[in-house]
Specification:
It holds the Pfam family Epimerase. By secondary structure, the protein is α/β, with parallel strands linked by helices. It has helices at 10-23, 38-41, 54-64, 77-82, 84-103, 139-158, 184-194, 213-225, 246-254, 269-274, 283-288, 297-312; strands spanning 2-5, 28-32, 46-48, 68-71, 109-111, 114-115, 161-163, 165-167, 169-171, 197-200, 208-212, 237-238, 242-244, 261-264. The structure holds (3R)-3-hydroxy-L-norvaline.
Length: 320
Amino acid sequence: KILIIGACGQIGSELTFKLREIYGHDNVIASDISYSNLEVVNSGLFEIVDAQNYASVKVCVEKYNIDTIYLMAAMLSATGEKFPMKAWDLNMESLFHVLNLARAKFVKHIFWPSSIAVFGPTTPKNYTPQYTVMEPTTVYGITKQVGERWCEYYHNKYGVDVRSLRYPGIISWKTLPGGGTTDYAVEIYHKAITDGHYNCFLAEDTELPMMFMDDAIKATVDIMQASNDAIKIRSSYNLSAISFTPKQVAESIKKHIPDFSIQYQPDYRQEIANSWPKNINDSYARQDWKWKHAFNLEDITNEMLFQLDKKYHPTKIESK
Ligand code: VAH
């Protein structure tokens, strides 16, 4: 049985639906700290679990005889800069609880997401290697860097089967943006449909690594289904698809909505984005467990605008 912690979130919600498709509806238990995503809550087995409370997680693990946990609860980069100690507590306590449950043999497998936020201003920004200087300047990035160290430690010292991916910015339409710096690339599509205009909080030439949700979900399923000896990196794998700037995504939107307009008003999140790489070398993931992405920027724009147009204008007759 599979437990998803943080199932109401951007990745957790889509992971819930995908894993139910693959492993069977009643073999996947969704959980979160609150009923914040009713589509997830009302779609199948759901439990309130406080990821910062060991007993809360353990009770759910024992109730359903869980053998695999996907820990998708975390406070992201932008929000983490507003509440540093809350970000540290949530991101670290939740990780220790699931690692200790695995060490004590209550569960067998763990997936834990890292992020390109582990890289900092001193990291090479182009084709950022798997092994390189990492001096993250956000609390979120610090929690991901030290979390990777603990995952590798628990694997080497206690044989815990924990697997991890350094996600880039992830673009999806099913949930609203949740406090990430890369979330401008989600907001822009919503605004293109609802307002025809977007005030972008990053400068037009801010290139960042990005990925469509379907690719991120595929990578997560692929790494967890790979044979144990295929996984040679137990900190976290670099994972990449595409990279683009706000200007490039605005141009791709204009091909569908010619009147779409954008203005750039960088805020505190510009400094966060400036500390991250422009693009990522994920050759180890491609070589060890055959990763490859599918969605390019045009595909993402097509799908985002199509789905959001339906979401915001449900009664609109499909234009021929
Ligand atoms: C954030 N979306 O912006 C997350 C992600 C690489 C960025 O970790 O904080």
